[in-house]
From TrEMBL, chain A:
Organismal lineage: Bacteria, Bacillati, Candidatus Dormiibacterota, Candidatus Dormibacteria, Candidatus Dormibacterales
Protein name: Branched-chain amino acid ABC transporter permease
Subcellular location: Cell membrane
PANTHER family on file: AMINO ACID ABC TRANSPORTER PERMEASE PROTEIN (PTHR11795:SF445), BRANCHED-CHAIN AMINO ACID TRANSPORT SYSTEM PERMEASE PROTEIN LIVH (PTHR11795)
Keywords attached to this entry: Amino-acid transport, Cell membrane, Membrane, Transmembrane, Transmembrane helix, Transport
Gene Ontology BP terms: amino acid transport
CDD domains per record: TM_PBP1_LivH_like (cd06582)
Statement: the UniProt record of this protein carries the keyword GTP-binding: no
This protein's record includes keyword Iron-sulfur: no
Automatic annotation (TrEMBL), chain B:
One Pfam match: Peripla_BP_6
Protein family (similarity comment): Belongs to the leucine-binding protein family.
Source organism of this protein record: Candidatus Dormiibacter inghamiae
Domain Leucine-binding protein: 39-390
Name of protein: Amino acid ABC transporter substrate-binding protein
Record has tRNA-binding as a keyword: no
Length: 290, 414
């Protein structure tokens, strides 16, 4: 029983990372209609920035989150304005091709800068935690989940309450109508992509404390973001939160609770659930009806 | 008319220069200089194993500089400068095999050095065999490579089944002796072979294997499996996998307060990255190693162990010691060099036969191949990252420079 609770807790905690990775991906997909294959690359840039600030200036990985998010916002804004904007109305194949290329460039630039050495952020409190009746709650992971949920709340609030957020939602709903009522499309696109990149940066910061990173470590996260967004449903932050936490729990339980199957089946089970969800609710668990 | 005579003068001048250059090259030195020897090397320059591939390349290049400084490889009195022709296989076996074919057919590689990893080595071995080109490899330890009756593939490293045996042998000598063991393994052929051999060996030695599981190669979320292992309360936690997984398992073990007396990982602890990533949490961790900078072999040629370490630090301007991936890769070059010298020829078949009968002691240890082509004559050593933050060789005792720091204190008391 303790073990089951422990596994559930671990699933929720890793789910927090998936939420953080998924938010930016969902926003960019929903508003710009771009499946951003460079999302994992942006996540890893965030992870490297966090590592750099930690190892060179001894800045705590949680304190550096705003710095990393701001830097990634800048990178995302410029990237969209200069590059991605050129294919914004092109068929989806071109956007996939371009973002795939951007991802390769990111990986290779990181390889040049940092080589393929493994890095990890290990602050002094890493690994300490709370023990509740035999269930371990590692502080760093709990804090990671909290940051992910705060990020989700902040993005949701921003979209719902602020003027710019309203513009972003308007563009997501109908870009031509939004332009007609005076929304500066290029600026809103770039802002949205920048916010997506900033979320990726926050996710990268969390990831750098949980695992060893290399320039190509972001690739699995693009896939996970994709799954999380499909699972939850496109277009709502709360859907990404549900999708991310659910995917984390399903993955962890599948990995550990099916005796004899082994963790090799975790992905198969997680993706089988995805297929079932798509078959039963094609717009995701919390997707809006058309 | 005038222009033509100027032209003819230029042509004759050019011809003279060429003749003079040719003459001087032919008559220099006591031994003759022959054609360059082209050795093909498919390598993980990018991809998931770029780190390890980079280390292997360092080992090859270290020897390349040395041998060319000597004037080249000596085959029957003629010295041949060595050219290593690298191709980036992106750590993918199918691409590696294609590139190996290209190296042989287009670049006319006469010999091959192996790529990084068991999977790529296995696919390249097929190509080497088909073309009758000897491949000496240093980074594919899965025995599966050597159980196909290939005649042209030789591995200088100890095979996979020995990787964690040293740790288990050492555990049997410790006081208080641990009795239970958990094993987590990646699902690639090399890691599974290491895990299976270690479990069987441990059972035969009287240890109780209380938990085993496997995970997909490259997983970074291993907390769930570590929680399962913790529920069985093992005194030894073993991993057969790769660097990133070893880091993830060690972090999870601390997160979840899995307090084992002994932590040992097949790949990872020997690299500086492991210590850099984990800081003091890397202390007390053991690893099986092909080689350490502390071993005490007496080589019959090339550099001694301390000279090798010094040469490495100089060439790569680093204070880090070379890890075993570097050393075993250099050892593959040495095997090839010695085989050419013994054969007195660069002909692939003659070099192959000389490799099959090779028996030398190098800084890396003894190199001798069994009938399958793998070096079963060199022992694995066990190293430990001790509380001074340094790697120490702790087993077997005759090559060790320190005693094991045992048992590992609990996480909360560290």
């Amino acid at each position: 029983m303790t073990l089951l609770v422990q596994q559930l807790v671990l699933g929720l905690l890793i789910g927090g990372v998936y939420v953080a990775v998924g938010i930016g991906f969902s926003l960019v997909w929903g508003v710009l209609n771009i499946v951003n294959l460079a999302h994992g690359g942006l996540v890893i840039i965030g992870a490297y920035l966090t590592w750099l600030l930690f190892s060179a200036f001894k800045i705590d990985p949680f304190l550096s989150i705003p710095i990393v998010a701001a830097a990634l916002f800048g990178i995302g804004y410029v990237l969209q304005r200069l590059l991605i904007n050129r294919v914004i109305r092109a068929p989806i194949f071109f956007t996939l091709l371009l973002t795939f290329g951007v991802n390769l460039v990111i990986i290779n630039v990181l390889l040049l800068l940092f080589k393929s050495d493994f890095r990890s952020v290990t602050p002094s409190y890493s690994g300490s935690g709370l023990s509740l009746g035999g269930v371990q709650l590692p502080y760093i992971r709990v804090a990671g989940l909290a940051v992910a949920l705060l990020l989700a709340g902040a993005v949701a609030l921003f979209l719902a309450r602020s003027r710019v957020g309203g513009a972003i939602q308007a563009v997501g709903a109908d870009r031509d109508a939004a332009q007609l009522v005076g929304v500066n499309l290029r600026h809103v696109y770039a802002l949205t992509f920048g916010i997506g990149a900033a979320c990726a940066g926050v996710a990268g910061g969390l990831i750098s404390t949980a695992q060893a990173i290399t320039p190509s470590a972001g690739e699995p996260y693009t896939l996970q973001a994709f799954v999380v967004v499909i699972l939850g449903g496109l277009g709502r932050v709360s859907a990404t939160v549900v999708g991310g936490l659910l995917f984390g729990v399903v993955e962890t339980l599948a990995q550990t609770m099916v005796p004899g199957l082994g963790a090799g089946w975790a992905n198969a089970i997680a993706f089988a659930i995805l297929v079932v969800v798509l078959a039963v609710r094609p717009r995701g668990l919390m997707g809006r009806p058309v | 008319m005038r222009a033509r005579s100027v032209l003819s003068a230029l042509v004759s001048l050019f011809a003279l220069t060429v003749a003079a250059c040719g003459g001087s090259a032919g008559s220099s030195g006591g031994s003759q200089t022959g054609q360059d020897l082209v050795i093909g090397v498919p390598m993980s320059i990018t991809g998931v194993q770029a780190k390890e591939g980079g280390l292997a390349k360092q080992g090859y290049d270290l020897w390349l500089d040395w041998i060319n400084a000597q004037g080249g490889v000596n085959a029957n009195g003629t010295k041949h400068k060595v050219v290593l022709k690298y191709e980036d296989d992106q750590s993918k076996p199918d691409i590696s095999a294609q590139l190996t074919t290209k190296l042989i057919t287009q670049d006319k590689a006469q010999l091959l050095l192996g790529p990084y990893g068991s999977a790529t080595t296995a696919s390249d071995a097929v190509v080497a065999e088909k073309n009758g080109i000897p491949m000496v490899e240093a980074n594919g330890a899965a025995q599966a490579i050597f159980n196909n009756g290939y005649r042209y593939t030789f591995g200088v490293l100890s095979p996979a089944n020995k990787y964690l045996q040293g740790v288990i042998d050492m555990a049997a000598t410790l006081n208080p002796k641990p009795s239970t063991m958990a094993m987590l393994s990646a699902d690639d052929s090399f890691s599974l072979e290491v895990a299976k051999a270690a479990q069987e060996y441990a059972t035969a030695k009287g240890f109780n294997v209380v938990y085993t599981d496997r995970y997909p190669n490259g997983s970074t979320n291993l907390s769930g499996l570590v929680a399962n292992a913790k529920a069985k309360n093992p005194e030894m936690l073993l991993n057969s996998g790769h660097l990133a997984e070893a880091v993830a398992i060690n972090k999870a073990a601390k997160d979840l307060r899995l307090d084992a007396k002994l932590y040992a990982y097949s790949v990872g602890p020997s690299t500086p990255d492991f210590v850099n990533s984990l800081g003091t949490d890397s202390h007390y961790v053991y690893g099986g190693s092909q080689w350490t900078p502390q071993v005490k072999y007496k080589p019959s040629f090339y550099l001694s162990v301390p000279d090798y370490v010094a040469a490495y630090k100089k060439k790569y301007a680093t204070s880090d010691d070379p890890d075993y991936h570097v050393a075993e890769s250099t050892a593959a070059c040495l095997a090839l060099q010695k085989a050419i010298e013994n054969a007195g020829s660069l002909k692939p078949d003659k070099v192959r036969d000389a490799l099959a009968s090779l028996d030398v002691i190098t800084f890396f240890g003894r190199i001798k191949f069994d009938s399958r082509g793998i070096n079963t004559y060199k022992p694995m050593v066990v190293e430990q990252i001790q509380t001074d933050g340094k790697h120490h060789t702790v087993f077997p005792p005759d090559v060790a420079d320190a005693k094991p720091q045992y048992p590992t204190p609990t996480w909360s008391s560290r």
